[in-house]
Amino acid sequence: MEFAKHLSVKFQKKELFSGLFILIISIILPSFLLSLIYNVYIYFDKAIDFWDVKYLIFASFYLVFFKTIKLFPIFFAIFLLVDSTEISIKHRERYYLKIIFAFFILQITYFFIYKLYYKMDYYFDKVAILEMIYIFFYSKKSFKNINFFKRSLVLFLIFFSIQWIDITRYFSILDYRSTGEIFFELRNIAFFLDASLLLDLVGISFFSIFFIFSITLLYIFLDYEKTKSIYEDQKKIAAISSALEIQESENRYFKEIQYLVHDLKTPLFSINTLIEILSIQEENPKKLEYLDKISNSLERCNIMISEILRDTNKNYLKIRKIFDFIFSYLSIHNCIHSIKLCNYCPDSKIKVNKIVFSRAIINLILNSYDAIQNKENANITIKVKDYINFIIISIEDNGIGMSEEVLQQISTNKKFSTKNSSGIGLNFVKTVIEEHDGKLFVSSKKNVGTQFYILLKKGEVNEKK
Asked: At what angle do helices 13-28 and 95-113 cross, to 10 degrees?
């Protein structure tokens, strides 16, 4: 009972059913081959009648070929069953149990075939033992990495090589019970023609050639798969490294542009403020007109600066990738410590321009950060949820909030901002969201906080990233 608790047996269904199917075929197959196999007696008769050893060699090839065709499906089925089985004790795989399992199946199959077709007892011979040794060797080594067709090819060649041992005197008992009546008669005729040594030499030579070639081929396949695996790993590492370098370059470029924009906006804001002061003090209508034109020009310049990096290319991107980019940019900003992200659909996709859309989200986050300055327990919560056909992104803060007047400006699409600036920050966000076929909603209470809600269409399931 204690042993049964620690014993674990797992099967791979595809290989298991394939193995069982081939095992059934292997039991039926001899009925179609028996008449062909017994045609070998034609070569036996010619060898004796003409006293010519070459007919004995022909008979050897004939027998080995048909025995391989007849019995290989059995060992191939065993091979598949061993491959499909994982027997573990205390979570450690035990290869010898797989071999016992294979031996048990093989014995039953051979016994059934011999009783059904030959009406004789079956004895597990040394050739079969060699084949079981190979299966054990295969099971213990990591040959499963090799392509299935290549593994099967090697198994066939090894099986074919081992069959040549049956025509020799050294690896089987000289009794038809161990190798079959036909092989027994083949060796008797060889002895009668004084060709036993030649038959042994042919058998050992072909066994050695095919066996060495098979094992060599097996290790060539294994080495190829290892090299291929290393190459694939290096390729993946190179791709990841390249992607990280591109990402880092993008982030650096984006930050530099943002710093430049910020540096340009500061003097423009100062100039605009001075113009407003001059406008208040000036009474000359002509000068006021000029000042107004300058103010409008500055406003256009401000908008142009805000439009830096704008382009129209959009791609289907996973939500996770977008926020990875956003947080990569914000990683050096103090606001990063106040943000909590709840992304409930990281693998959902939206069609966006990564740079422009990220700038819009960053703008909202920085607005929220400005609003929570000097407040206790200040925080910014970002939530991303999937609603069948739409993605909703919410950015909430517990800051100073906005007045009804500012909210009215938002609803009427006038310029607005939560900062003491030229007033295009949030207008830029609204424009970006609309360009992405989305909608922006704002809810705010003075001294309570502000919530921004972005509604976007989901990407198609079959679109590539």
From this structure: 30
d(CA 44, CA 60): 10
Q: Which 3 state secondary structure label does DSSP give 440?
A: strand
Distance CA 164, CA 155 (A): 15
Which residue, 357, 368, 326, is CA-closest to 431?
Answer: 357
Residue partners of 127: CB distance under 8 A and separation at least 6: 162, 163, 165, 166, 171, 172, 179
Average the pLDDT over 29-56 and give the result. Answer: 82
Q: Which residues, 6+ apart, have CB-to-CB distance to 33 below 8 Å?
A: 66, 69, 70
In DSSP terms, which residues pair with 451 in a beta bridge?
396, 443
What domains sit in the chain, N to C, each tagged with a CATH number? Answer: 2-237 (no CATH), 312-465 (3.30.565.10)
Cα 280 from Cα 206, distance rounded (Å): 109
Which comes out higher in pLDDT, residue 166 or 102?
A: 166
Q: Helices marked H in 29-147 — which ranges?
A: 30-37, 40-49, 53-84, 95-113, 126-140
Q: Give residue 198's Cα distance to chain centre.
A: 55
| Structure tokens that stand for 259 in this block | 């710093």
Rounded Cα gap, residues 141 and 144, in angstroms: 8
Dihedral, CA of residue 123, residue 125, residue 128 and residue 129, to nearest 10: 120
What's the pLDDT at 343? 93
Q: 3-class DSSP state for residue 451?
A: strand
Query: CB-based contacts of 173: which residues, under 8 Å, 6+ apart?
Result: 125
93 band by pLDDT with thresholds 50, 70 and 90 = low
Residues 121 and 136: their CA atoms lie apart, in Å, by 26
CA nearest neighbour of 323 among 299, 296, 307, 347: 347
pLDDT band at 92 (very low <50, low <70, confident <90, very high): low
Q: Which of 21-35, 128-142, 188-202, 294-308 has the highest mean pLDDT?
A: 188-202
Task: Pick the closest to residue 365 from 345, 337, 404 (CA basis).
Answer: 337
Query: Which tops the pLDDT comparison, 114 or 208?
Result: 208
Judge whether residue 178 has pLDDT over 50: no
- pTM for this prediction: 0.46
Mean of pLDDT over the chain: 77
